[in-house]
């Protein structure tokens, strides 16, 4: 009768045992720690005992720990490799578009690059029957100093807007706490007055920054040059979206959160459509992206204002939507691509 021997299930994890249960890797860690400790002892213990003896003990203990002291059934070298991988491996995602990677502030630092890339890939405008006899000479491109100043001001405007939103939330929390009955009355007037003063200063600073951006971006009037050939100019069509009477699903339950569903002409959902929300001054306040069901929604509410929604995806064109927020829960906007 033949003897039955078990078949190894994971032969790749087998480690050669040198002495008893000590593997070759454990012997290597132990030999490295002891060898380094012996080398320091021979070379520096006589002349520098204060420095040499701590190194000797530390090296010996580390060698023994790496060889025989596991943590969570795993050796110390495993935890050391996991720690170094977690520290030096990148964990921040970057937005890449048209072969260019935007690592920080993609909507502010690279607006000019995005605009120029969009104009190069835009389809030609349809010819019109009207003939224009005069056209303004195009303004020169802004200098690098103006672009850098515009980017800095845009970043400052974004930080001020985040502070304004945070102050408004804190003020709303104080109002809610003041309306709740408490055994001991609490005076919130000083705290609310301080927040209102800070909010007023932030609004004034934001107005000054917007005026500076407007003065930098204000184009200079160029002399008009008469021409005899017809000139066609593609204009952006701004429309007010019609809210559907009955939405199939609700993407959010918070007021002033812009959300919607994007489809093509064949009623297929479009994934990866970038939706950017701009305020009246033309500064982006939200950047969203549709999922596999063509849905996009913001995470936090916006103040009561009029906003502009622009959508972008390769090989598709969309109308620019103008939305007015009044503190109500918005139903999903059903947006259909033009081409």
Structure commentary:
Helix 1 (24-44) packs antiparallel against helix 2 (49-68) and helix 6 (144-179) packs antiparallel against helix 7. This protein has helices at 24-44, 49-68, 76-88, 106-109, 111-121, 144-179, 189-217; strands spanning 17-19, 22-23, 95-97, 100-102, 134-136, 224-226, 238-239, 259-263, 274-278, 284-289, 295-297, 306-312, 320-324, 333-336. A hairpin with a 7-residue loop joins strand 12 and strand 13 (320-324). The protein is elongated and about 80 Å long. Strands 7-13-12-9-10 form a five-stranded mixed β-sheet, with no helix packed on it. A three-stranded mixed β-sheet has the order 11-8-14, with no helix packed on it. It has three domains: 13-88, no CATH class; 142-218; 238-336, Immunoglobulin-like (Sandwich), CATH 2.60.40. It has seven helices and 14 strands. It is an alpha+beta fold and 339 residues long. 40% of the residues lie in helices and 16% in strands.
Primary descriptors:
339 residues; alpha+beta; 3 domains; five-stranded mixed sheet; three-stranded mixed sheet; 14 strands; 40% helix
